[in-house]
UniProtKB/TrEMBL annotation:
NCBIfam families: transpos_IS5_3. Residues 6-79 form the Insertion element IS402-like domain. InterPro entries: IS402-like_dom (IPR025161), Transposase_6_like (IPR052909). It comes from the Bacteria. This is Transposase. Residues 108-134 are annotated as: Disordered. It holds the Pfam family DUF4096.
Amino acid sequence: MGRGDLTAAEWERLQPLLPVSNGRCGRWRDHRQVIDGILHRVRTGVQWRDLPERFGPWKTVYERHTHRLWSADGTWEHLLHQAQAAADAAREIDWDISVDSTIVRAHQHAAGARTTPPPDLAPKGAEAAEHQGETPWQSLLARMVKAVHEVRAWAARVVG
């Protein structure tokens, strides 16, 4: 198990929510291996072809994440909604929202600022500290939200 892979607790909660093969398309590669590859790609931003071999063929991971299988049929959205519902039923999600009506005007010299934030340069071991104290559902949901956002961005680039 590598850094950033699904933990045993996360996998136990996610496994029953995953689709099963219909048998017509042959045998599917291990879901856990592919999902770990997707999470690695989302976390590191590595090119698809540069995914480590431990995640299986890069094209399998790519197709299940973005192209044909799980994003096209809405599986990622469905997984996220099911996991959120299960975490909500276990009372592990705090749905309180804080809205602030404060207005802060930008300085006149802020007009030419860059539109994208600089890359996040987290120190080694920062991810472990980031998820410390979270329940397995919270950690899994946070990672699934990143994967769904990436699928949506990919779909928007394809359409636009």
